[in-house]
Amino acid sequence: MAGKKKPRFLLAVETSCDETSAAVLERGRILSNIILSQDEIHSPYGGVVPELASRQHIKSIDYVVSESLTQAGVGLGEMDLFAVTQGPGLIGSLLVGLTFAKGLAYYFKKPLIGVDHLQAHIEAPFLENDRIEFPVLALLVSGGHTSLYFLEKPLDYRLLGKTRDDAAGECLDKVAKFLKLGYPGGPVIERLARGGDSSCFHFSLPRMKTAGYDFSFSGLKTAALKIIREHGLSAEHPALRDFLASFEETVARALLENVHKALEEFRPASLILCGGVARNTRLRTRFSELAEGYRLPSYVPSPRLCTDNAGMVGALAWKKYQVSPVSSTDLDLDAYPR
Ligand code: KG4
Ligand code: ZN
């Protein structure tokens, strides 16, 4: 059977961190993309608690997958392919999705395609635009990762640099936690910074001592915490808005400095910004300003496709399958935390 009939429907599962997500795709296009966030569970702790995350995935996965099928109007037995995030992420969380998808693929005797979570983020803008020109320079900014990639052609990922310490999203989350603003910190900071004066507080940009495209955000976090202490800033302080606007602006500038440098060296045809922090309006604006300065097209996914979702996982799996089709369920497929 497999190999004769051209695949049409794909079910993708994503559980790498604190979102339980399942998506149904038809020939690489999203029919449904269900995302169940665990924000409320982790919020009291100011960050993701791995043990709680994996337990919650176990509780939600069945419902999320059923809902994705209902919304797509397609039955489980009609799936031609299954896809799942293998890593990087929280190992317990990854294993929930991987085991679930493996079980389905094995039962229905269909291929299972393992996908890298970071590469899946880069795939998100392609879901909304199939004319993105290569070579591509892609900046991935999430809660766990901050990386710069160069793609000469599709599926050809060359990592130019990554963070040596905290990810940009992690830096936002930790500063928000310190100020007791809630979790996840990125969206809260964005909301509270609105209308603030971004030139009010001065942060020096993190500088890497070595050449290349690595990032560092722990220095910026320390500088932010120092300012908070020195000025006695709190959730109620009148200067909070200006402080958060200044901090958000500095994070955006630190991210774009490396993109700017890489643009000069690699001369890409297009630019991509992706990952959860790409939801941030200030960063989106600065990114498109940079691209316009170079007269380059830039692509940033719609906010829902920036944060973790199974749609991007399915899209990448579909593309991988077109290039190298597999016919059996690979039961050896393993999860990797990093
Ligand atoms: O990609 P993602 O959903 O998960 C990981 O793979 O890490 O990204 C989550 C990160 C969190 O750090 C969160 O604070 C940040 O994305 N984030 C934002 C915004 N929305 C989510 N950061 C800044 N502004 C936002 N609007
Ligand atoms: Zn992610």
Task: Describe what you observe in this structure.
The protein is α/β, with parallel strands linked by helices and 338 residues long. The protein folds into 2 domains: 9-121 and 307-323, Nucleotidyltransferase, domain 5; 133-296, Nucleotidyltransferase, domain 5. 44% of the residues lie in helices and 18% in strands. The protein contains 11 helices and 10 strands. The protein has helices at 39-42, 50-72, 91-108, 117-128, 168-178, 185-193, 218-230, 240-266, 281-293, 303-306, 310-323, and strands at 9-14, 19-26, 29-37, 81-87, 112-116, 136-141, 146-151, 157-162, 270-274, 298-299. The strands form 2 sheets. A 5-stranded mixed sheet has the order 3-2-1-4-5, with helices on both faces. 49% of the residues are buried. The structure holds 5'-O-[(R)-(carboxyoxy)(hydroxy)phosphoryl]adenosine (KG4) and zinc ion. Zinc ion binds next to helix 4.
Strand order of the largest sheet: 3-2-1-4-5
What value does the Rg take, in angstroms? Answer: 20 Å
Q: Looking at CATH, which topology of the largest domain would you report?
A: Nucleotidyltransferase, domain 5
Q: What percent of the residues sit in helical stretches (DSSP H or I)? A: 40-55%
Number of domains: 2
> Overall pLDDT, averaged?
95
Number of strands: 10
- At the fourth level of CATH, the homologous superfamily of the largest domain is ATPase, nucleotide binding domain
> What are the secondary-structure elements, in order, as H or E?
EEEHHEHEHEEEHHHHEHEHH
Main sheet attributes: strand count, strand direction, barrel closure = 5 strands, mixed
Query: What is the global morphology?
Result: globular
Q: Given this structure, which CATH class of the largest domain is correct?
A: Alpha Beta
The ligands bound in this entry are: 5'-O-[(R)-(carboxyoxy)(hydroxy)phosphoryl]adenosine, zinc ion
Uncertain spans: none
Distance between the termini: 36 Å
What structural class is derived from the secondary structure elements? alpha/beta
CATH architecture label name of the largest domain: 2-Layer Sandwich
Family: Belongs to the KAE1 / TsaD family.
Pfam families: TsaD
Binding site for Fe cation: 117, 121, 308
Domain Gcp-like: 30-314
